[in-house]
Design brief:
The chain is built from 13 helices and no strands. By secondary structure, it is mainly alpha-helical.
């Protein structure tokens, strides 16, 4: 287990909890796979606690045109709420709404995505949208979010994204989950 694996999982857990990584550095001795399991369980619990209200909002969003939902969502400006709503929606509809968001706002939402639903939404986005999000996240050096996105993508889309990153691509590898690290490393090697 490398220091980067520990660091990535600690940063992801800190982001979920809304604290700095230094605030939870006492967890550095916990194996990264265990930290990932804790993070996923906590994320699911947080989502479950708000499921009733989120389900009602997502249900309302289901009957409105996606362009209207995207406009209202972005105007709301609450990226965490948007990410939680995406987790409650059909992944195809969530991806259709995501395609209509500005690149900047979609990148903000991406920082709060987690879990299998996020993977399904991200996987349905076209490479053009993913590249626009990559540019936004690269500008802020948010390797943690880029690492998650790359690990959720199929090989071709991940390779396209890594190729577009150029010399920044290795920074993403340090942020990828331990489970996906070898697959992403192989994809990165194939882009050179």
């Amino acid at each position: 287990m490398s220091a980067s694996e520990f660091g990535a999982e600690l940063r992801k857990l800190a982001r979920l909890l809304g604290v700095t990584p230094e605030r939870i550095d006492y967890l550095a001795s916990v194996p990264p796979q265990r930290l990932a399991a804790i993070r996923i369980a906590m994320g699911q619990e947080l989502l479950a606690r708000n499921a009733e209200g989120l389900t009602r909002i997502a249900g309302t969003a289901k009957v409105l045109p996606t362009a209207v939902v995207a406009k209202v969502t972005e105007r709301n400006g609450h990226a965490l709420l948007t990410a939680r709503l995406a987790a409650m929606m059909d992944s195809g509809r969530a991806a259709d709404i995501a395609r209509r968001l500005s690149d900047r706002y979609l990148a903000q939402v991406a920082t709060h995505l987690d879990g299998p639903q996020a993977q399904q939404v991200i996987a349905q986005l076209p490479d053009k949208v993913l590249d626009a999000v990559r540019k936004q996240l690269t500008a802020t050096q948010d390797w943690l979010t880029l690492g998650a996105i790359v690990s959720w993508l199929g090989t071709d889309s991940a390779a396209n994204l890594l190729r577009a990153m150029g010399s920044d691509a290795p920074a993403v590898l340090d942020a990828v989950d331990a489970v996906d690290r070898e697959r992403v490393r192989a994809t990165l090697s194939s882009t050179r």
